[in-house]
Amino acid sequence: MSGSIINRWIINPINMVSMYIPIDGIIDFFQFQPTTSYKQDDWELMIKPSRSSDWAVVIDHVVSLSCDRSSKEVCANPVTINGVEIYSGMEVSAGDLLGYVGNYEDGEGGSVFGRTEISIGKYIKNGNQRDFNNFCPTNYLDPTVKANLQSSITQIMASYESWLGDSSFYN
Q1: What is the pLDDT of residues 103-153, one digit of tens each?
Q2: How many whole angstroms separate alpha carbon 64 and alpha carbon 100?
Q3: b/e string for 80-117 if b means 16 or more Cβ within 10 A?
């Protein structure tokens, strides 16, 4: 199968994956991320469980639902939740529709397909400065959930290596 068929048939539909707010909370921070050294042109936001919390869920690489995902044109439309443009201090609920997964190119200037990053972080005081430390959420999963997730990911990776014909791709 040629790469162009794979790009149209398998990869492009991935950029239409919808993202949902994972926790009840408050939008603490958001920004549009224009492309610099690699394809972005998408949004990042942080949701705190309450205004006073030092903890936040970070969702990186989100595209507005109003963007045409079949286009390669940059779409900087604002992210909306329930029809309202997001703003710092906005209350959100787990399950609210957020947007589409963000942009990521195939590395050869071809198709744009979807990606996102979700992490958990904590604001810490560092002298007079307030820093933010990210933590991988999989480190905090129940052991049985973590084992099932790792098994699924390992199977996906093996399947891709088999299709690619390179069993050492992820080594």
Answers
A1: 776 565 555 567 788 888 899 988 899 888 888 777 778 888 888 888 888
A2: 6
A3: ebeeeebeeebebeeeeebbbbbbbbeeeeebbbbbbe
> How does pLDDT run across 28-61, given as a tens digit for each residue?
999 998 877 666 788 999 999 999 999 999 998 8
CB 102 within 8 A of CB 62: yes
CA–CA distance, 55 with 81 (Å, rounded to integer): 22
Q: How far apart are CA 86 and CA 116, in angstroms?
A: 18
Whole-model pTM?
A: 0.73
Name the 3-class secondary structure at 96: coil
- What distances in angstroms separate CA 60 from CA 45, 50, 149, one per listed residue? 6, 20, 21
Cα 88 off chain centre by = 19
Positive/negative CA dihedral, 67, 31, 99, 70: positive
Q: How far apart are the first and last CA of the chain?
A: 24
